[in-house]
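User: Modeling request: complex.
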Amino acid sequence: MKNNIRVERAIKNITQAELAELIGVSRQTINTIESNRYVPSTVLALKIARVFGKPVEDVFSLDEED
Amino acid sequence: MKSHFLFPHWFRYLGLALFLIHIPIVIFKKEMGFSMHGETESDSLFNSHHIFFMTTTLLMAIGLFFIAFAKERIEDEQIFKLRLDSLQWAIYVNYILLVVSLILSKDTEHILFLNLLVPLVFFIVRFRWKIFQNNRLINKEEGQV
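Assistant: Request completed. Predicted assembly structure:
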């Protein structure tokens, strides 16, 4: 699964730590999601999308391998 | 995120303390006590050797147990997954070692002891190592920015 959290964060001008605090996870978790080492649960994906005010599909998209 | 069946965070330090306490006791006993081994041994379950073995082993096992299953500061789903992965690894390693040692050795007391120790120790090491790797990657990124 691909994501463009890094881009969305840049648009909204928030750091990994700030995003992590907004959705109640650790900074490491945001980092592992951004670098595609961890696929978040649906709940977490929805929370992240809500922070950016966009539908989940705008933030996360399927990879060819999925 | 709700985490089930985990101890509070400070249990990690309690566990560490218990584990550290048991080491000097065992060393002390090894230095001092093995001359007594055999002569005081009776058939009763509660001879001094058995009671000593029981208490130190319990101290160690409970200590490791607390270290392994104390909550992280921020307990989220990624940590939960790491924990589950590490547990799976620990069980694999334990059973491979168990089978190998059952084939190669008849020393059941030590096999039992190993079986008590390996899953928890391997789990703790693997889990901590993964967390350490995650932290290192974050620090690396910060270095680049």
